[in-house]
Amino acid sequence: MIDLIQMVVNGIAVGSSYALMGLAMVIIYKTSEVPNFAQGEMALISSFFAMMLLTSFNMSVYLAFFWAFVFAALLGCFLEFAILRRAKEPNVLGMIVITIGIEMVLLGFVSWKFGADQKSMPFPISPYDSFIIGDIFITKLEVLTLVVALLLMSVLYLFFKYSKLGLAMKAT
Asked: Is 124 helix (H, G, I), strand (E, B) or coil?
């Protein structure tokens, strides 16, 4: 029975990571009505930017996270204004092809700048730090991921349920 409970806890923890990725994809699709195939690479380049700030400039984790978040927002705005809005007579298939092209360019840039080898990013929470509740084991990183996912889902629920913009987006 303990093994079953442990597997359920692990499934919920991993599922919260997938929930965050799914939320990101749905939000982008709902706002632009185009699936963005470059979304993963945009997160990748932002993560490598944070790693560069942490390792090369010895920034604190919180400051590096803030600047990586700003970088990600600016990257998204740049790609939207410089590439996606410039498409002549855009249709869904054309926009999908453009986002696949952006994906390839970003992946090539990351491979060129940071190399293709696997890297380890310094992070304040070790993947080995964990809580043990009875016979159930869960890492602090899994708890953080679950809390962030629940918080974000709650904020989005409230936004779509009670704000004018959220209600307008829901109607379309």
From this structure: coil
Do 108 and 74 reside in the same domain of the chain? yes
Is pTM beyond 0.90? Reply is no
Provide φ and ψ at 133, rounded to 5°: -115, 105
The domain in which residue 65 lies consists of 38-115
C-beta neighbour count of 150 within 10 angstroms = 12
Cα(42)–Cα(104) distance, integer angstroms:
11
Exposed/middle/buried for 99, CB within 10 Å: 0-12, 13-18, 19+?
Answer: buried
Claim to verify: residue 57 and residue 29 sit in the same structural domain: no
Q: What DSSP element (H or E) covers 167? A: helix 164-171
Listed in order, strand segments (DSSP E) in the chain are: 130-133, 136-139
Chain segment 146-157, per-residue pLDDT in tens: 999 999 999 999
The full DSSP string for 30-67 is: HHHSS--TTHHHHHHHHHHHHHHHHHHS---HHHHHHH
pLDDT at residue 127 tops 80: no
Which amino acid belongs to residue 113?
Answer: K
CA 72 vs. chain centroid, Å, equals: 10
**Residues 27, 157 contacting (CB under 8 angstroms):** no
